[in-house]
């Protein structure tokens, strides 16, 4: 009986994850090579400095592939499951949209389409992924 209770409790705790779009288990992002950021940013702080943007893009590429590609596709090319992130608007407009979605996730009609990564990713990781997406951006 104890084994069954444990399994029942485990199933209840895992239920919200089972309904998440893509059922992604977040992977750690090594941001040790990036400039430390203070507080929540509203624009990509790495974009203005070419060297910082390149380093962030390299870190972001790995982070994207480990955490985002399962739903958004390799190279940010969507296979139809989730939005094609190469098409995010460039600059501040795209930063605001990206920041909002990655931090809070996407829930529609009570269904989690994308889990919130804000509590999981560091500020550096969030903007490293955005830097990577900047590097693969295409105009529609």
UniProtKB/TrEMBL annotation:
Residues 55-137 form the Cytochrome c domain. InterPro entries: c550_proteobact, Cyt_c-like_dom, Cyt_c-like_dom_sf, Cytochrome_c550/c551-like. SUPFAM superfamilies: Cytochrome c. Coiled coil: none annotated. Keywords: Electron transport, Heme, Iron, Metal-binding, Signal, Transport. The keyword Electron transport applies. PANTHER family: CYTOCHROME C-553-LIKE (PTHR37823), MENAQUINOL-CYTOCHROME C REDUCTASE CYTOCHROME B_C SUBUNIT (PTHR37823:SF4). This is Cytochrome c-550 PedF. It comes from Panacagrimonas perspica. The lineage of its organism: Bacteria, Pseudomonadati, Pseudomonadota, Gammaproteobacteria, Nevskiales.
């Amino acid at each position: 009986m104890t084994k069954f209770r444990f399994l029942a409790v485990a199933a209840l705790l895992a239920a919200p994850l089972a309904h998440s779009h893509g059922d992604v288990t977040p992977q750690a992002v090594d941001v040790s090579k990036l400039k430390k950021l203070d507080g929540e940013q509203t624009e990509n702080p790495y974009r203005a400095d070419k060297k910082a943007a390149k380093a962030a893009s390299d870190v972001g590429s790995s982070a994207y592939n480990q955490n985002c590609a399962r739903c958004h596709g390799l190279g940010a090319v969507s296979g139809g499951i989730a939005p094609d992130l190469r098409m995010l608007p460039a600059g501040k407009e795209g930063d605001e949209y990206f920041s909002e979605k990655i931090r809070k996730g996407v829930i529609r009609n009570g269904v989690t389409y994308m889990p919130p990564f804000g509590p999981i990713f560091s500020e550096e990781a969030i903007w490293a992924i955005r830097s990577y997406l900047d590097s693969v951006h295409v105009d529609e």
